[in-house]
Amino acid sequence: MNILLVEDDAALARALQKALRHEGFSVNHVDCGRDAIDSVASALPDMVVLDLGLPDMDGLAVLKQLRNDRQTLPVLILTAREGVNDKVVGLDGGADDYLSKPFEMDELLARLRVLARRLSTSTSSEITYGAVTLDTASHEICVDEHSIACSRREYMLLKALMENAGRIQTREALESKLYGWGEEVASNTIEVHISHLRKKLPDGFIQTVRGVGYTINNKPLR
Ligand code: CA
Q: Which residue from 20, 71, 135, 137 lies 20 to 30 Å from 123 (Cα-Cα)?
């Protein structure tokens, strides 16, 4: 697994490279946005760890460019900025996960393992977390191996959450997945679908991230 590390803080970059290599990742380090974009095109990394505060370009602009070049490339962003706004913008801009500085190295490694696992399982039609299995081929949702009835939009909502387990899905991102452009969407629509789904799923399966959106914990529930 080949990671591109984009970080201009030399001391942090050294520590990250050491930890990532110790974990068995091979690491290519660059310290500016321009080199990051070049490197994604030439070195074809499996994943990217992207600092948003770069000397030459806004990290979000780099993210956008990476997404244009390689749509499915997993990107974890590092942000030093306070507040949820950057995180929301980053997640909406196509980041798969984020960490705020300062962070624990173990936390970063755990998040990267999740991204790596998702890479290796993304070809199967069944997604399972805990007691819940979603089959993207048959559009069936099972809890404890019993099929449950749900609407098309509930299915799409759960699919978006389960495909991105461990990542927060913002309300805006979910709305855009469930509704076409220009469709009228009431402000509490996602909440209503979530509350219907929760009645059919194990307690705590869908977690609310206050002020941001929803997530499914990627840790086994039992
Ligand atoms: Ca920086």
A: 20
